[in-house]
Structure formats: C-alpha cells, structure tokens
Automatic annotation (TrEMBL):
Swiss-Prot/TrEMBL keywords: ATP-binding, Cytoplasm, Kinase, Magnesium, Metal-binding, Nucleotide-binding, Transferase
Coiled coil: none
Pathway linked to the protein: Metabolic intermediate biosynthesis; acetyl-CoA biosynthesis; acetyl-CoA from acetate: step 1/2
Annotated organism of origin: Psychrilyobacter piezotolerans
Binding site for ATP: K14, H207, L208, G209, N210, G211, D282, C283, R284, G330, I331, G332, E333, N334
PROSITE patterns: ACETATE_KINASE_1 (PS01075), ACETATE_KINASE_2 (PS01076)
Lineage: Bacteria, Fusobacteriati, Fusobacteriota, Fusobacteriia, Fusobacteriales
Gene name of this polypeptide: ackA
EC number assigned by the record: 2.7.2.1
Positions that bind Mg(2+): N7, E384
Record protein name field: Acetate kinase
Record text on subunit structure and interactions: Homodimer.
Family recorded in the similarity comment: Belongs to the acetokinase family.
Length: 397
C-alpha cells in the first residue's frame, strides 16, 4: 500500500510517499514559499540517495501539488502512474471536540473542520486547501484527516478546563486542546514498547523544537499537555512566550497602544528565545552564543530549561510518578545541553542522566539514563508522517 502524506501550511507543502505496513519511505520533500517570490522545491528518494532542489514558480498549492505528482511519476519518480497512490493522509491541526480520532474526509467532515477555523485560523484553512487540491488532482482516492489535537482528547475535564465562566466553554468551546498529537502518540507508543508494554505506564514526552510541548501519558493515553486552546500556551519556544500572566499582555497592549493583531504577533512571533536573546530564535545559535559568553543567551537557555523541568516535575506529580522521560523534536533529539539542563535538580525523583552517553550524537532511540536511575530517559526520533500513514491505512481498510 502506498500512502501520500500531505502536511499543508499557508505557504508550504511537506510530503512523503510511504508504505505504512513496511514503513518504507519511497520519496520525501517540500514545496516552500508557495505564492511568494523565490518558491523552492525539494525532492529526495531515500533508497537511491537521489536529491533534487530547485527554484520553481508555485503561485498556489495546486501548482505545488502538480509538481509533486509530476516528479513522483517522472524521470526520477518512484511510481509509474499516479493511480499507484492508494490513499492520501492529511495533517489537520485543529479538530476541536468533534474529531477525537482520524477520519475519512468527505464534504460533511470538511464542513465540520471548517467550523473550527476560528480555533486555528493560520493552519486549518491551509490544511483544507490541501485536501481539496488532492481531491481535484487525484480523483477517486480516499483522503483521511489526522488531527494534531486528537491524541489529547483523552484528557479529563480537570486538566482541559480553564477556570473561566462556564459559558465560555459551553458557548465558545474555550478549553485546552493540545497539539503535536501525532508526535506525542508515536513517541509514547514507542516508549511503552521499550518499557515492555506494561499494563500500567507513566510516560512524559518532551517534544522540543521551534514549537514545543510536553505531555503526560498514562497507560498509553494523554492525561495532560502543555499547549492549550492555541499553541501559544505552555513552554517558552522559539518565538512564542508560553505561559505568562494574561494581564501582562493587556498591560503591554495598553502601554504600547497595540492592536489585537499586534499583541498577538508580539506573543507568537517576537517572544520566546527571540524575545530574550534578540539575535535569533534558533537554539543552535543560542548555544553557540552561550559558549561565547553571551549573558542573554545563557539567560534564555536557563529560562527555557527551567520551564521544561517544572512541567516534567508537575506531570510526574499529576500521574503519581513517572517510568520514562522522552525527548524528541529538533531540539529534543539533537541538543545534549538542553536535555541535560532540563533534568538538573530532578535527582530527588530518581532521575539520573548518563552525561557521557547524552553527549554523543546518535540517531534513533537512545537510552540516556544510568543503570541506577529509577526513571528511564530516552531520546527518540519522532515520525509524525508514519502515524498519519498508519491511521490512513487503518481508516481505508
């Protein structure tokens, strides 16, 4: 079975052609800067190490997807005909309360997704555009929606409710939803495998990248997560502030005479690492600057890892303990400094990091805890596309 996985952003389109049964990736790539000058197309065939990168005009997502399909079936293609694609799996950011699992996409379902556009105005419209384009260019093939929020819909009310007037929940659906669900689902599932699939397990997943979130997963189900109604809540991230006093935003808005859009942009695009460090939002730049004695870089790292550590401890308390702590995402998988500093001071929980192993960069799943540690610590390479492909296969069958 061949599943085309599509992750459609407002000006980008990530894609993979996968066999979810064997986990073979036939092709992978990216269409970047869609509708913007300097559009770029990337295509890679892992089996042959063939790579293609070129500038190509892509005014809309339709032209981008046409380029993807033509390349998949062209001179360096991996299929002879587009009909070899059995199904298309789509990443959908926000499913609200209605969509708690992956679902076959039709007009009724798409209308339901569109009703949640207010909850994810930057993502859901782009995701739906990708679905409609695929239905037009690959007619007759089933399309499946896999939601970032679905994995966290097992959270109990005490975790997902906000202490606001209850009508804000019943009438406006204001509550914690959580994101990065496909990544948390994949890593938590692999963690349970590594633990020997016990009947009861307590896993904390730290998905650390430019966007970052932590989840508490008990017996394979999410019981809490750091992101909320939007991806702004929770950890300090590349450009997002994470948890702050809500009144601080109102204070800044009034003092600087900002519009709603301007204060939203300030918290989402100008805060976090970028807000403190000011020179970059990239954690790699941050670490280099810290090594060079940059005090602002050191402060940003201390702030970021302090919050990660606090969330780990609070989720261990919420679950009554923890069996494994997992690090994933671009930063979680690659930064030994962030992993180390995030676990500092957690020795009272029985957490012991093997610094020698932690300092060596290896791919795949790597155990980072000492033999005497009461809590297993792992670095796990996430695979959100495989989760989407697996769910698509399950729905189609």
């Amino acid at each position: 079975m061949k599943v085309l996985v599509i992750n459609c952003g407002s000006s980008s389109l990530k894609y993979q052609l996968i066999n979810p049964s064997t986990e073979e990736v036939f092709a992978i790539g990216l269409c970047d800067r869609i509708g913007i000058h300097g559009s770029k197309f990337e295509y890679e065939v892992p089996a042959t190490d063939f790579e293609l990168e070129l500038e190509h005009d892509m005014p809309t997502h339709k032209e981008a997807l046409e380029l993807v399909l033509n390349t998949l079936t062209g001179e360096h293609g991996v299929i002879a005909d587009i009909n070899e694609v059995d199904a298309v799996g789509h990443r959908i950011v926000h499913g609200g309360e209605e969509f708690t699992t992956s679902v076959l996409l039709d007009e009724k379902v798409m209308a339901g997704i569109e009703a949640n556009n207010d909850l994810a105005p930057l993502h859901n419209p782009a995701n739906l555009l990708g679905v409609k384009t695929c239905m037009e260019l690959i007619p007759g093939k089933p399309n499946v929606g896999v939601f970032d929020t679905a994995f966290h819909q097992t959270m109990p009310a005490k975790a997902f409710m906000y202490p606001l007037p209850y009508a804000d929940y019943t009438e406006l659906k204001v509550r914690k939803y959580g994101f990065h669900g496909t990544s948390h689902k994949f890593v938590a599932g692999l963690a349970n495998d590594l633990l020997g699939n016990p009947a009861n397990s307590k896993v904390i997943v730290c998905h650390l990248g430019n966007g970052a979130s932590i989840s508490a997963v008990k017996d394979g189900k999410s019981v809490d997560t750091s992101m909320g109604l939007t991806p702004l809540q929770g950890l300090m991230m590349g450009t997002r502030c994470g948890d702050i006093d809500p009144a601080a935003a109102l204070f800044i808005k009034a003092k600087r005479d900002l519009t709603d859009k301007e204060i939203d942009a300030r918290m989402n695009k100008k805060s976090g690492i970028l807000g403190i460090f000011e020179k970059s939002s990239d954690c790699r730049d941050l670490e280099i600057a810290r090594e060079g004695g940059d005090e602002r870089a050191a402060l940003a790292i201390d702030m970021m890892t302090y919050r990660i550590r606090a969330y780990i401890a609070s989720y261990a308390a919420a679950m009554g303990g923890v069996d494994m702590i997992c690090f994933t995402g671009g930063i979680g998988e690659n930064s030994n400094l962030i992993r180390s500093k995030s676990l500092e001071g957690l020795e009272f929980m029985g957490v012991e990091l093997d610094e020698a192993v932690n300092s060596v960069r290896k791919k795949g799943s790597v155990k980072l805890s000492t033999e005497t540690s009461k809590v297993a610590i792992y670095k796990i390479q996430t695979n959100e596309e495989l989760v989407i492909a697996r769910d698509t296969l399950a729905i189609v069958k």
